[in-house]
Write the structure tokens for this entry.
Amino acid sequence: MAWEGILEDLRFDGQHAVVTGGGRGMGREVALGLAQRGAHVIVADLNGDNARAVRQEIQDLGGTAEAARLDVGDVAAVRSFFRGLRHPLDIVVCAAGVIRVKPFFDHEEEDWDALCRVNLKGTFFSIQEAGRSMAARNKGVIVTFASTSAYVASRVPEIAYDVTKGGIRQLTISAAIELAPLGVRVNGVAPGTILTDFNRATLDTPEKLKTVENSLPMGRVGTPNDVAGAVLFLCSPLAGYITGQFIVVDGGRLGRAG
């Protein structure tokens, strides 16, 4: 590969992409990044207004996009959505997810079921439908969203979330092995503390933010754009021989003991 032309491999002209959970946060940043580099992006989100707002952002920037309301925890809806798309898919990013902060003894069955429904079941059936479509063409890329919570406990108590993210990590690895012979790559990102709406709510004082920043080797929390960069790399030909792997985007958190 000629390194002078490396940025050319971060173009997605003529490709069609779906981003679940694309209406806000990290999913929104991924959708914008793909569109700014030439992809036609279908922004899918449980909140249809958010999906339409991101579609408008993309169009205002000169890109092309569609918006769809999608509950990834509804298997029938997931199947109908993917099978009803007008164009073959090149890229699917599974960024949809939910989180609940509760101490271990306060978790109820409903909490467990709600997180498993969206995070685990939603990701599995999104991968299954995307993979089915891509395998028919012997090409495609899928990127999932786990978390550093798939490796270590979260900084706040959210055990059901941690378990589902660990499940997504293994789901990604296992799906990658099955789909590799069919021409489909499956990888994931594992974000650490990223400045999303959720983390802004939990880091709601300068003191709390400073404490977290001081615990990170890079001295700052991440941004959605930090995560989007890793996703775009995994979607690109630059990662053409990578499957079943995760990029941890955490400012060095996992490398620091204690």
